[in-house]
């Protein structure tokens, strides 16, 4: 069997709030709670299991999602409608802009805990394929 990422745990202050926030932006479903986890499954089978932790113990992480142009348009509309600040760069210094790396579009935004979420329509290595 080839090695595949199956799931990862995403630390949150409120696991339901964070799961619903990301699922809402990406147009995904929030799964039923399983133990301490609130899952959000992606199309490639990787599940993000949101778990509540004390705020002081949470280290910000970066999660990047490859989506279609149509999904980007829908997610971008939801980001704007919710008033979520977005950025063209991972340093979050180019507010209100999107990037056009590798012939696609991308942006970054923070979830309720401050994790760096990224949506992009082309993978970073698209120019080499």
From TrEMBL:
Q: What Pfam family does this protein match (any one)?
A: Glyoxalase
Q: Which InterPro entries match?
A: Glyas_Bleomycin-R_OHBP_Dase, Glyas_Fos-R_dOase_dom, VOC_core
CDD domains, alphabetized: ChaP_like
* Domain VOC: residue ranges: 4-122
This chain belongs to the protein called VOC family protein
**High-level lineage:** Bacteria, Bacillati, Actinomycetota, Actinomycetes, Kitasatosporales
């Amino acid at each position: 069997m080839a090695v595949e990422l199956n799931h990862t745990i995403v630390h949150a202050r409120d696991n339901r709030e964070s799961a619903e926030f990301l699922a809402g932006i990406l147009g995904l479903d929030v799964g039923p709670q399983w133990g301490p986890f609130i899952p959000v499954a992606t199309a490639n089978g990787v599940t993000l299991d949101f778990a509540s932790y004390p705020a002081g113990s949470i280290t910000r992480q970066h999660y990047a999602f490859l989506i279609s142009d149509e999904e980007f348009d829908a997610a971008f509309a939801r980001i704007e409608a919710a008033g979520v600040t977005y950025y063209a760069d991972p340093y979050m210094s180019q507010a209100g802009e999107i990037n056009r790396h590798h012939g696609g579009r991308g942006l970054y935004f923070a979830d309720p805990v401050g994790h760096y979420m990224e949506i992009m329509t082309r993978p970073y290595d698209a120019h080499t394929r």
